[in-house]
Amino acid sequence: MCSLEKRDHVFILTLTGDGEHRLSPDAISSIRSALSRVKSESIAAGGRGFALVTTGEGRFFSNGFDLSWARSGGSASAARSRLHSMVSDFSALVADLISLPMPTIAAVNGHAAAAGFTLAISHDYVEMRGDRGVLYMSELDNAMPFPPYFLALMRSKIADPKVLREIVLEGKKIGAAEAAAKGIIDRAHGGTKETVEAAVRRAEELAARNWIGGVYGSIRMGSLPEISSSLGFPPETEEDREKLLSASKL
């Protein structure tokens, strides 16, 4: 499932459990519970000056949805129903990250495929292990249509349409160095240790800016209108902005 550690003002969420960190309903629920704890603890401590790092154990960051769990339902219709359930549950997890009131950094320690790739780019920054692991959207190869919010997120995070085409219409497997060169991730590093250390350093630097979390989350969602709308977030109102201003230095 996952574990959560707090180092001063940096929360470190680590995907644990099976080797591929498949996103089953239980795994999604576990991650969402950890994010809820991150949010509540940061608010209780003043709501400013925190950051989150998400990583995984072993060779995989996450290999996507738990399709074996979906197929275990018996019939084809039961499998589809289970898959739809995971897609819906995971959209709530992506929404948690898009709205989290602090900077977020994914430390991709290995393969990140399908929903695992989506989980990585739901963070503000992506640091990735360079000596092993790929980013890969497997939906085309598995004859599975993309959930609309997956495409909305990728369009929001991957600016080059040719790179987006490689990912969604070619199913290309992309290593860290190429992903950094194409702007999919921020930086590639030697191994897992270096990747996590780089992510934590970035998190510490961002947390030290002591930004108000609510303002940070508001600006993030405003800068990502397509995915925010796809996830069901309403447009920010003047009343919302006034509430945020009440906590500012003005």
Automatic annotation (TrEMBL):
<dbReference type="InterPro" id="IPR029045">
    <property type="entry name" value="ClpP/crotonase-like_dom_sf"/>
</dbReference>
<comment type="pathway">
    <text>Lipid metabolism; fatty acid beta-oxidation.</text>
</comment>
<dbReference type="InterPro" id="IPR001753">
    <property type="entry name" value="Enoyl-CoA_hydra/iso"/>
</dbReference>
<protein>
    <recommendedName>
        <fullName>Delta(3)-Delta(2)-enoyl-CoA isomerase</fullName>
        <ecNumber>5.3.3.8</ecNumber>
    </recommendedName>
</protein>
<keyword id="KW-0443">Lipid metabolism</keyword>
<dbReference type="GO" id="GO:0004165">
    <property type="term" value="F:delta(3)-delta(2)-enoyl-CoA isomerase activity"/>
</dbReference>
<dbReference type="GO" id="GO:0009062">
    <property type="term" value="P:fatty acid catabolic process"/>
</dbReference>
<dbReference type="Pfam" id="PF00378">
    <property type="entry name" value="ECH_1"/>
</dbReference>
<feature type="region of interest" description="Disordered">
    <location>
        <begin position="230"/>
        <end position="250"/>
    </location>
</feature>
<comment type="similarity">
    <text>Belongs to the enoyl-CoA hydratase/isomerase family.</text>
</comment>
